[in-house]
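for the writeup, i need someone to sanity check this before i put it in the appendix. the sequnce is what the collaborator sent (i think, or maybe the updated version? ugh). structure was predicted straight from it, no edits. if anything looks off just tell me and ill rerun, i have time this weekend
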Amino acid sequence: MSTIEEPEPTRPWRPEDGPAPAVWTWPLADRLALRVWSAGAWRYAPVRARQDWPDGTVRYQVEVDLRGDTTMVTRTYVWSQEGLRVAHGSGSEPSQAADEQHLGALGRARRTVGRLTGPNKASGRVGG
């Protein structure tokens, strides 16, 4: 039996929270990904977006199959929690604009190994 706690999802931003977070995305063909501990296993979770909140917290919106039955759901998690790990980084630069590249155009995917502190906006890698 594992002693790892499943990460707690968080609610979306609301206007009463104050200024909106800065949101970063990566091309669909080269997204970074996390692993989410759920139902006794590490689940692969591609990142849909990173949110940098004005209070300094970082949240990741991911697509994940929490039960292992191929039902994908979208969840947002505050980084870092025990039940979250880095799966891989991205070789692409993140963007705050909704351009064609970030809406599904196929690009040349390059995978990089990430650090364990959160995606780095400049490099697209998971790190600080």
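The two ends are 31 Å apart (CA to CA). The first strand starts at residue 22 and ends at 24.
thx in advance!!
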